[in-house]
Amino acid sequence: MKTGTFNFVLGLSVGLVIAYMGITYFASPGTLGLSASVKHMTISEDGPRVEVPRDSFLTHEDLDKIQKIIRPVQFQDAHSHHDDNREAKELYDQIRVLRWVMTNPQNLEKKAVHVRATWGHRCNKLIFISSVTNDSFPTVGIDVPEGREHLTGKTMKAFQYVSVKQEYFSGGAGYIISKEALKRFGAHGTNASMCRQDGGAEDAEFGKCMQNLGVKVGNSTDRFGRSRFHCFDTATHLMGNYPRWYHLLDAHGGQSGRASISDYAISFHYVPPARMYELEYFTYHFRPYGIHFGNQDLNQEMT
Ligand SMILES: *[C@@H]1O[C@H](CO)[C@@H](O)[C@H](O)[C@H]1NC(C)=O
Ligand SMILES: *[C@@H]1O[C@H](CO)[C@@H](O)[C@H](O)[C@H]1NC(C)=O
Ligand SMILES: *[C@@H]1O[C@H](CO)[C@@H](O)[C@H](O)[C@H]1NC(C)=O
């Protein structure tokens, strides 16, 4: 595979699937890509905003409350570890992943810096997209005002930036997009009759745009039907205290519990910065002594 060719891009995850079901998520202007795509749900932009009742699952408001300003921590990966990471390294070279993260100037120090210090740097290319260029962070400024009503525009412009400026095709805020999907976006994404350029609900609009480009939504569960993308925090997926809409709208009825979550999960939502460091520790450093982890083949047959 040609270096500089990116196969997949991460942007908003579950959004794409749910977008087809006519539901709108709101991401605050402070939203960061992958781990922060879902704010509380409201029933469609056009209709009245109905706040969905919730019990104990985390929301963006909760995150803001518990969020302390913390200093970034740099983890040293190498010391005393004897992990066999040859396959991970091969995959890193063979399947190149570009990740772009939507942020804004107010969130650079509060959130983006922690994304960069944890999961952000574990892909081939990481780009922070904001309304203002900041050469020292760095962020790429795209010409769209901040605010949730412009999220669609921000996503569309960000895709255009990564597909044109970076000379490879790439994707939006919390989904994984194939190279072919991005090629199609690069070719037709500025056509307003296929892809709304701003306004509406960002993930729903992006979903419609992809549909108009003939891009299909894939089944992201593993071959045991276990979930890889998670639109709540980890504890909620383990305990299952979901709001009712989730059971109605999730393609698999809103399963919960350890057995419903893939060992190769990809994303969880509502991860505050301090927990990003916890997860970094548990994922890349913590090891129950005496267990040597083997690879599992959990991929589904693709049809
Ligand atoms: C760029 O970001 C840094 C934080 O990383 C901040 O301290 C600085 O003020 C920003 N510069 C501009 C011009 O916004
Ligand atoms: C935009 O898309 C529509 C619908 O597919 C098509 O008819 C039209 O020719 C396209 N416009 C351009 C400029 O490509
Ligand atoms: C996704 O794949 C799993 C496992 O093969 C299957 O059980 C499930 O029904 C599929 N879901 C959809 C929406 O097709």
UniProtKB/TrEMBL annotation:
Keywords: Membrane, Signal-anchor, Transmembrane, Transmembrane helix
Organism: Mya arenaria
Annotated localization: Membrane
Membrane protein topology class: Single-pass type II membrane protein
Residues spanning the membrane: 6-27
Protein name: C1GLT-like protein
Keyword Transmembrane helix (UniProt): yes
Family: Belongs to the glycosyltransferase 31 family. Beta3-Gal-T subfamily.
Record carries keyword Membrane: yes
